[in-house]
Amino acid sequence: MPGRPKQAHSGKVTLADVATVAGVDRSVVSRVINDDPRLSVRQETRQRVLDTIERLGYRPNAAARSLRTARAYMFGLFIPDFANPVYAEIIKGAEQAANQLGYGLMTASSGGVRLGLQHYLDLLGQSRVDGLLFAGEESGHELERLRSASVPWLLVNRRIEGSRRYVVLDDERGSGLAVEHLAALGHRRIAHLAGPETADTARRRRAGYTAAMAAAGLRTGTRYTAHADYTPEGGAAAMRELLAVRPRPTAVFVANVASAVGALRTLHEAGLSVPGDMSVIAMHDMSLAGHLVPALTTVRMPLEGLGRRSLELLATTHPQDDITEVVAEPVEVVVRASTGPPTP
Amino acid sequence: MPGRPKQAHSGKVTLADVATVAGVDRSVVSRVINDDPRLSVRQETRQRVLDTIERLGYRPNAAARSLRTARAYMFGLFIPDFANPVYAEIIKGAEQAANQLGYGLMTASSGGVRLGLQHYLDLLGQSRVDGLLFAGEESGHELERLRSASVPWLLVNRRIEGSRRYVVLDDERGSGLAVEHLAALGHRRIAHLAGPETADTARRRRAGYTAAMAAAGLRTGTRYTAHADYTPEGGAAAMRELLAVRPRPTAVFVANVASAVGALRTLHEAGLSVPGDMSVIAMHDMSLAGHLVPALTTVRMPLEGLGRRSLELLATTHPQDDITEVVAEPVEVVVRASTGPPTP
DNA sequence: CTGAAAGCGCTTACAG
DNA sequence: CTGAAAGCGCTTACAG
């Protein structure tokens, strides 16, 4: 491109520049920056180095550092869908933790050009990331390929058979709170609109429901549980199943908000009032819940904490270590308009 | 950490390994990989190099390449909120384009630990990114700081005064389609529930509304436009204003879906039926629109194309070039249940 | 046409 | 206690 004005030398300041100006060796500058405990230097000299860095606006070059240390100072987070607010919160937590630890975070969805996992294997091969967080829907079979490569990776919000590296939420507890909320309102016939039987989160939510029902001395019976697929359409169909059961339940705990959207539609179409004829509570709080008609009561789970904790563990553990953690942060019911006492 | 089993050498294959096995010089391998046109080598040799790369599973080390070429092969995308589906689509498009061009994409929100822009300046200082896409809400004042650094950056979906580097959607055209849809249904009194007067997107949508109304020979009058702030609460209040106007409008074009959520609530509370008493159409299609009651008619804009095109332009233009592009991809009305003919 | 060699900007084991 | 030097894995101008 002839005639284009040549870009002025950006004057990138290097470590060598800092050393020259401060009158010390480059190694001293490096050690000051990295807080090397083996460096003993007069406080005065250290301060001079720090001042020089500040004055020249020096920033270590990430590529040089990575090449030398064989670390990318970058993690990857793999999610199925950016548009799902559940993942938005996980991303936020992971991003914060990464920044705090001096790492970058690359977030990618399955929608990428190269098929999801292959893309990540490429990143690993190029040493562009130091580890991977999987919040997506990769099959155990796919992830098997990662196991051979001795790469740090962690499952987020999900367990798969044979893996000892995951961080999950306390879905049992969240589900228990939902049931307790309904029971406290006076409901006795509480149904569960569950997720896919194959999904780990769905299984744990169902287990929490069953346990809480038992603890409250309430009967469950298999007909009071209908499985759906975490989508509005599936939720609508499952709600129709539950409405057909006699005696009809007076309340339902729905495994996720998307299913609850469909469930509310079914109830609306059936001419039933919420919560008059049926109370509805769903797992995971998100702003959409507040805008449904009626506004949906939910269980707020520490999704941001999940992202944060997952990244911290990825950064600070060895790839071979077992990690089987349940995020400890509190879980709570967010009461809106969709739950109330049963009509006598 | 004593006693920890030493990790087996991962056997990272380097360019030198490939050269040795293939029996050529490292520079030949490098040139084959990078398709250097100045390399003349027998087809047979080239194939041998390629085969060796394949067989050894060689992947170029990104850090070494970056250090040498002074390019990070990474772009940054800055968004205000991961949970907003509008940005989810932009991210998707940008991610695809980045992958296709051999770049990575770091997406970050203002929620990071370091205050948004400073975080990016750090990334730039460290040469971790080659350029920045701003889809966020940074003020012109903040962005002024970037102008001094001669860094490639681009505004996405927004213009600010004095900047000649942006990519936007055809909001005028989208708004025009909305008005045309309503006019075709027979509406004459069409109101506009606009966005913030200061927002560039809101101004362009309003301009599109005004122009289309004029083209259809319909009167607008300032009372038929109410400004809100792109939130459900603001939308609810603005809808109340519009309901007070006489003669009452029979249809409203809402500047975004969040405002429409509030507008629908106001209409519901006022006992008005949609679309019987009031047709509602909103800008930007998203799955939430299909789940509102009634399901919301929208204008689908090429958000993914916006992300894709922005990244392509960022990657292929010089920082000094003017970029003032409107994404050319088609815009269309997605008809759902919230629009219909006016009741006579 | 091909290959040897320099060098990008760091870190760190090691010599003094 | 301090600093010189090697080297991480590439790319590319240049010599042969």
From TrEMBL, chains A, B:
Residues 13-69 form the HTH lacI-type domain. SUPFAM superfamilies: lambda repressor-like DNA-binding domains, Periplasmic binding protein-like I. Keywords: DNA-binding, Transcription, Transcription regulation. Pfam families: LacI, Peripla_BP_3. Signal peptide: none annotated. InterPro entries: HTH_LacI (IPR000843), LacI/GalR-like_sensor (IPR046335), Lambda_DNA-bd_dom_sf (IPR010982), Peripla_BP_I (IPR028082). It comes from the Bacteria. The keyword DNA-binding applies. PANTHER family: HTH-TYPE TRANSCRIPTIONAL REGULATOR GALS (PTHR30146:SF109), LACI-RELATED TRANSCRIPTIONAL REPRESSOR (PTHR30146). This is LacI family transcriptional regulator. It comes from Prauserella endophytica.
